[in-house]
């Protein structure tokens, strides 16, 4: 009713400091508050976290959030603490004493913890945590389960995590009274959505999908040649003075080669990948957030959960592994809504390299053929000369898109830009 609506907006303002809901946030929040299982598919940066953080603040009880990575969890915990929201994380690196402190808060009469972040293996391992959940549930204090990055539960996703499949017991185990589940992801094709809902036993969940169109991103593609990266980065520096961007590379070694190439040309660049030690990684992240250098040379390990609003360009120096991956990686540009550039440096040879890596990988033939098929889709995207790139990207997620909107936008993709120029040339010819 009206009271609920009012309470949503006043909490949004007083606790989170925002005036408006974005995308489908409000609908998702209402659905989960009404007790429905809810499945949320919204692009990166849309604000999925608020869909469970706000209900957690409004309702009594504890909300349990399953999230795949410690870095994501730490990041969220810090934000919640800054907002004065009771939040703790159960991760592998806690001391037994710290863990005990969390358990004793949860089993107290009125837990101060509103949001409890856990990694999936914590949930599936029976034992202490299981009995704490049972205890909360019995007292009506288990408010909600949240499954963040829900595509991790599907084999067809780009980031399958076996521990996620064990979350399939939550629906049945906490069914009397039912504890609502909300699952969220940014990267799921229709096939992955179906698979994830089945695996989580959330077939009856309400599904909310918001548009994948990113109007402020310019998608472009040029052939990869010897000097193209340096030239392109110089052009980006002119377009966006004082700002920085990401160059995605296939391997750690390639990150280093690219960094060398750029610094030799007088540009400032740092590397970032999973092989760096924590101190260096934190230092690079910090100076990256402050625009202290032009380019971060990164493997796809970089980016998940790092929320830099003013990334002005994302360059793919090597081929992404899938269309979803490409959408996700380019999606890190322009989160502040300002025009930003996504450029692919394409070489067919890179696709052969990628396919060789997949063929040599140690996995089942089904998974291998899925990965190979993903690469073929990327190649088709790159070799395409007639279909709008925005259209190809968003239709991959099952959305329908009219390429006229790209053609008429301030940031048309390279294909639409070319078409527009052709049309103008024809008009010019008509007039004369
Ligand atoms: P996602 O998980 O969908 O990638 P996040 O939940 O991390 O996105 O949110 C991305 C950013 O958007 C965060 O900085 C968050 O504070 C901000 N945000 C979320 N909701 C709103 C809103 N309604 N108004 C303004 N900013 C918002
Ligand atoms: Mg998120
Ligand atoms: Zn287009």
Main traits of this protein?
single chain, 19 helices, 432 residues, 6-stranded parallel β-sheet, globular, 14% strand, ATP-dependent DNA helicase, binds adenosine-5'-diphosphate, binds magnesium ion
Would you kindly provide a written description of the structure presented here, covering whatever features stand out?
- This is ATP-dependent DNA helicase.
- Residues 228-376 form the Helicase C-terminal domain.
- It is found in: Nucleus.
- Its main location: nucleus.
- Helices cover 46% and strands 14% of the residues.
- The chain has 19 helices and 13 strands.
- The chain has helices at residues 2-16, 25-33, 50-58, 70-82, 96-106, 120-124, 128-138, 162-165, 170-173, 190-199, 228-239, 252-264, 278-289, 323-330, 348-360, 365-383, 389-396, 403-407, 414-431; strands at residues 38-41, 62-66, 87-90, 115-118, 142-147, 181-185, 206-209, 217-223, 245-248, 269-272, 295-298, 313-316, 340-346.
- A seven-stranded parallel beta sheet has the order 3-4-2-5-6-1-7, sandwiched between helices. A six-stranded parallel beta sheet has the order 8-13-12-9-11-10, sandwiched between helices.
- Helix 2 (25-33) crosses helix 3 (50-58) and helix 15 (348-360) runs antiparallel to helix 16 (365-383).
- The longest helix is centred in the C-terminal third of the chain and has 19 residues, at 365-383.
- The N and C termini lie far apart (63 Å).
- The model has no long low-confidence stretch (mean pLDDT 92).
- It binds adenosine-5'-diphosphate (ADP), magnesium ion and zinc ion.
- Zinc ion (ZN) binds next to helix 17, helix 18 and helix 19.
């Amino acid at each position: 009713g009206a009271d609920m609506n009012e309470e949503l907006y006043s909490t949004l303002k007083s606790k989170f400091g925002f005036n408006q809901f974005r995308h489908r946030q409000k609908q998702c929040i209402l659905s989960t508050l009404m007790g429905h299982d809810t499945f949320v598919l919204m692009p990166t940066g849309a604000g999925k976290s608020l869909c469970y953080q706000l209900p957690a603040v409004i309702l009594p009880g504890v909300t349990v959030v399953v999230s795949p990575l410690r870095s994501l969890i730490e990041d969220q915990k810090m934000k919640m603490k800054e907002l004065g929201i009771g939040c703790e994380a159960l991760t592998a690196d806690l001391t037994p004493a710290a863990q005990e402190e969390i358990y004793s808060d949860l089993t107290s009469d009125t837990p101060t913890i509103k949001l409890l972040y856990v990694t999936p293996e914590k949930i599936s391992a029976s034992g202490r945590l299981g009995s704490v959940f049972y205890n909360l549930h019995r007292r009506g204090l288990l408010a909600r389960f949240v499954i963040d990055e829900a595509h991790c539960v599907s084999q067809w996703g780009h980031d399958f995590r076996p521990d996620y499949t064990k979350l399939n017991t939550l629906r049945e185990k906490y069914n009397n009274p039912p504890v609502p589940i909300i699952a969220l992801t940014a990267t799921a094709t229709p096939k992955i959505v179906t698979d994830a809902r089945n695996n989580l036993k959330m077939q009856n969940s309400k599904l909310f999908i918001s548009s994948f169109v990113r109007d402020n991103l310019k998608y472009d593609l040029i052939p990869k040649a010897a000097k193209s990266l340096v030239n392109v980065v110089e052009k980006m520096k002119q377009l966006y003075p004082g700002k920085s961007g990401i160059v995605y590379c296939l391997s750690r070694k390639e990150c280093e080669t690219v960094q060398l190439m750029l610094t030799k040309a007088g540009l400032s660049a740092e590397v970032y990948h999973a092989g760096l030690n924590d101190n260096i990684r934190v230092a690079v992240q910090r100076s990256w957030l402050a625009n202290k250098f032009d380019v971060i040379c990164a493997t796809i390990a970089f980016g998940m959960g790092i929320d830099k609003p003013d990334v002005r360009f994302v360059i793919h120096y090597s081929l992404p592994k899938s269309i979803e991956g490409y959408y996700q990686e380019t999606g890190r540009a322009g989160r502040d809504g300002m025009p930003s550039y996504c450029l692919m440096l394409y070489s067919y040879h890179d696709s052969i390299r990628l396919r060789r890596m997949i063929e040599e990988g140690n996995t089942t033939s089904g998974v291998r053929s899925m990965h190979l098929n993903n690469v073929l889709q990327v190649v088709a995207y790159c070799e395409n000369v007639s279909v709008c790139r925005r259209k190809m990207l968003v239709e991959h997620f099952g959305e329908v898109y009219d390429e006229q909107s790209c053609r008429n936008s301030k940031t048309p993709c390279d294909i639409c830009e070319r078409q527009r120029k052709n049309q103008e040339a024809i008009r010019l010819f008509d007039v004369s």
